[in-house]
Write a structure and sequence with these properties.
The complex is a heterodimer of chains A (198) and B (135). Chain A has 198 residues and is α+β, with helices and mostly antiparallel strands. Chain A has helices spanning 11-18, 33-40, 85-92, 111-120, 177-185, 191-195, and strands spanning 5-9, 45-51, 54-60, 64-71, 74-81, 107-109, 129-142, 145-156, 159-166, 169-175. Helices cover 24% and strands 40% of the residues of chain A. In chain A, strand 9 and strand 10 form a beta hairpin. Chain B is mainly beta. In chain B, the strands form two sheets. A seven-stranded antiparallel β-sheet of chain B has the order 2-3-4-8-7-6-5, with helices on one face. A two-stranded antiparallel ribbon of chain B has the order 1-9. In chain B, strand 6 (75-86) and strand 7 form a beta hairpin. The chains are: A alpha+beta (198), B mainly beta (135).
């Protein structure tokens, strides 16, 4: 199977793959894809992705990762080697060069205010909002404990704002795409972090 | 000669490239001589003959992540961050392209994507050490 692999698949086909079954209409699907997808369901690290109101999911194994995002009525499945996950996430979220300009100072907001501003678009925070996206990695870090690491971004006409929880508030830091990409590269747990959960 | 010099991260090995006198390269040290990274981080300082677009055309799965105009050690510079594939490895390349009277020069740092968070600050610090050779 040649990687990275990207293919569009329907709801039923995706359900079959996630259950480790070969879909009835498997024309064009690489041989063995169902086994890989089935095995990835037991992967220690999962990804939760949100882009606007759309949600996607991911499973990160020792060598391979699968990312599933909505594509109209269908789903888009991306199967990539683990080291390509940061770039896959960057591409899915349209990360690229942004207009140059003065970088603003960080600001803090009440999380509820930010959520409302994103939902309604009626706030200076979200003027020129292109997209609000978030990717979170979740993995076991001990008996009945999980660890999480997230990258959350407000993508606006003026540039990118990194959203980070700080002392009960959220801090918005105006950052270059480089900083967002660096965070995506550090999103997945290191092997030592995964071992901590065993 | 490139007419420029830079200080690579501490402990990196500077390579002798007899066939490329205009190029200076440095490669990350490996503890105990054991190569334990899938892609060994490196710096290359050379004459910038190709535009970014021409470079991109020769790379697999090139993705430009960032581009900014800046000043680097008093020299006009365009910094870019990109991701591409080399022999199946996911590679991040940060490049500082500066203009000197002799022409364009480029300093490129490359490392594996998963190594980038750990190395980013060191790479930036090395790039900031770029100077005219005469200084």
């Amino acid at each position: 199977m040649t990687l990275p692999l990207t293919l569009e698949i329907g709801e039923q086909g995706l359900d079959d793959l996630l259950a480790g079954r070969r879909p009835d209409d498997a024309e064009g699907l690489p041989e063995g894809l169902e086994s890989i997808m089935g095995e990835l369901q037991a992967a220690p690290c999962e990804l939760e992705m949100a882009r606007g109101r759309r949600s996607g999911y991911g499973w990160v194994g020792a060598r391979l990762a699968a990312l599933v995002v909505p594509a109209g009525e269908q789903w888009m499945l991306h199967l990539v080697p683990v080291e390509f996950v940061p770039d896959a996430l960057a591409r899915l979220n349209g990360l690229g060069p942004r207009p140059e300009g003065q970088m603003a100072s960080p600001v803090r907001y009440d999380p509820a205010l930010l959520a409302q501003a994103v939902a309604t678009g009626e706030h200076e925070l979200t003027q020129g909002l292109r997209e609000h996206w978030r990717v979170e990695a979740v993995w076991p870090s001990g008996p009945e404990r999980v660890s999480r690491r997230a990258v959350e971004v407000l993508d606006t006409q003026e540039g990118l704002w990194l959203v980070t929880p700080v002392e009960g508030q959220v801090e918005l830091a105006h950052v270059r795409p480089t900083e967002v990409f660096r965070r995506l590269c550090g999103l997945l747990p290191a092997p030592s972090e995964l071992l901590a959960g065993r | 000669m490139s007419g420029l010099r830079f200080v690579p991260p501490r402990g990196w090995e500077v390579l002798d490239l007899p066939g490329a006198p205009e190029t200076v390269a440095a490669i990350a040290a490996e503890p105990d001589g054991v190569v334990n990274r899938a892609f060994r981080p490196n710096f290359v300082l050379t004459v910038g003959d190709l535009s970014l677009e021409e470079q991109a055309a020769g790379l697999r799965s090139f993705h430009l992540v960032d581009r900014e105009e800046m000043d680097l050690a008093g020299l006009p510079c365009v910094r870019t961050l990109a991701h591409h594939e080399i022999d199946g490895r996911a590679v991040v390349a940060e490049q500082w392209r500066v203009l000197v009277p002799e022409g364009s020069r480029e300093l490129t740092a490359s490392c594996g994507a998963l190594d980038y968070p750990e190395l980013a600050e060191e790479l930036t610090a090395s790039a900031a050490s770029l100077r005219r050779s005469s200084e």
